[in-house]
Amino acid sequence: MDDELSKATDEVSSEEPVDLSVLEGLDFGPDWGKGIPQKKSPKGSFGPNRSETKKPFRRNKFSGNARPRSKINKPTKKPDPDHLVSFSPEAIPFANLIREMKTTCRAYSLFDLAKLILGKPERFVVMATPAEKPGHEIAYFVTKPDGLACATREEACAHLMDSHGDSFFEVEERETEAPKGSFTVVNKCGLTGELLAPPNYHRYAELIREHHATHLSNVSYEKFQRSIETEHGTEIVEAWLDGMKKVRVYRLKDRSVEEPEFFETREALQRFLMGQRFSKLIKKVRRARFSGNCLNNLPSGTLKRDVKMALEEQMRYPLSTATMLRRNFRKMKFAVYKHGSKGITFVCAIKRKIRTPDTVFASSIQTLLDFLDENPKSRKNELVECFLGLNSEKRTKEQEESVRQLARDFRWLVTEGYVTEFADGTLLLPPVAPSSLTPSVKTKKKQKPTHSKKSVTSDEILPEAAETSSITQQDDMEEKPPENSDN
Q: Measured between alpha carbons, how far is 438 from 172 in angstroms, rounded to an integer?
């Protein structure tokens, strides 16, 4: 059945509908609780107890066809992190999320929101602090052009060479003589297929480092070394010699008279830039903070390893990220509360309200409340059919008007906090509070009389009422930490 109530509700809403369907249909139960467990067949069901009749099998120790015992692979222990990593939401995506939550007025699981933010690198910010270890420098080197944090100054300089080298130098090709010597084999890169150099060539180490820096900077140097292959034959050697007749030189841009005009190797150029140019483009900090978009640009090292390990761990169980988000939602006056037997923490822009015996609603709203009391596990997309008894076939004008009235009543109940709509469409209506538990208000100053006896309708609510309710805090849940062990 099509979601008629959602369409009608969108017409009533004061803002454009925003899609948060990525959080719909989520199961808040554990994976082992899904499905029906299958019964295992009992052992020895094919006859009498075979252990009493069957003789134990003994292998002849002199038999030559004995199978070797397989080795048990023990799980490798994760290395101790060199960096303490945490995550926080990016400002603009988080503001969009807040606006969508205020628009939908739905309650979302705090852990699901944390995973939603960590799901894409443009949605979060990485915060790193060096772990205190002997001989470990407690500092980061951040490149000013793009804000990338590196563990060493050499890594920061290499990043500037790779990503911003066009601002400092240009590459030219020149004709030269082929190398002289006795060469029988040539090593080749297994990742790019390019011929590198013979192992006995005096510039071999320099050429493979330059090839890695210019072609495979996103691949670890160890992986690149393992991919190197050896090619034999005079044709391979001749092809390499022909390629070496053209060499690359690096010419400086905006150079002064005292500086060299060009450099023959990339390493010589990098040493010069580290001492003369890059010192002004790198700052040393004790704590690093950079966008998640920079994660792929991090040089291969301990920092990139620890950030990825922390991200994978938080995607499985985002406790620290959810705790940080909880504080942010509290500051923005969102309601944060636990629900269900599992104690799952939910976040909503609307503060929940409890009905009292002396509260009087309009007849259409009261009828809807009575239905929700009798059907506690109702869903929003089922109200048109189950509550009004209408299907998706052609309806009369009176029936269409009843659907619109239902949408107005439902929207009012949600924005006022009497009904909670969860991300999966499930509805929650708390029971009426007993008269003996209704708190009495005692203040020194006289207050305006309440309107609890007045009959209210959804048409009397101004659009600003939803916005006012969306920033209300639930004070009674202030001191409870999020404990989503089963989320």
A: 83
